[in-house]
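#lab-general

N.A. 3:47 PM
ok so I finally got the sequence cleaned up, no stray characters, all 140 residues accounted for. can someone with queue access submit it? mine expired

B.Y. 3:52 PM
send it over

N.A. 3:53 PM
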Amino acid sequence: MTKHVGGPETPEQLADRQARYEPVDSRQYRIVAETGEDAGWVGYWERTWHDQQIWEIGWAVIPAFQGRGLASSATGLLIELVRAERLHRFVHAYPKVENAPSNGICRKLGFTLLGEVDLEGRWGGLARCNDWRLDLSEGD
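B.Y. 4:20 PM
back already:
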């Protein structure tokens, strides 16, 4: 499940991430399957991109639950929360170029592909990613 984000984390890194995601205001949410089981997460956070403050959005679904549209549905719902904050005009997603399912989610949800970029990986090095952008002011 972590092959597109730099590989597995150590137990300490997982504990740190969990502690950051638990507060109510963390903007990180569980994805729950129709069975009531935890299926993954979706979230958004602020980022400076090309000298501009934007939202970045991301998601992950446990392999056993992939292919059911859960990430698309959860991300679509989350975009409405992001839009309602009215803080930044754009939300970006940066799936790796070879991550066809996540790139498909961006396409399905109306993001515009701006091109490929190299982003710093979780543990150093660069990852080749697509820069997808959604204009949150559209539809106002």
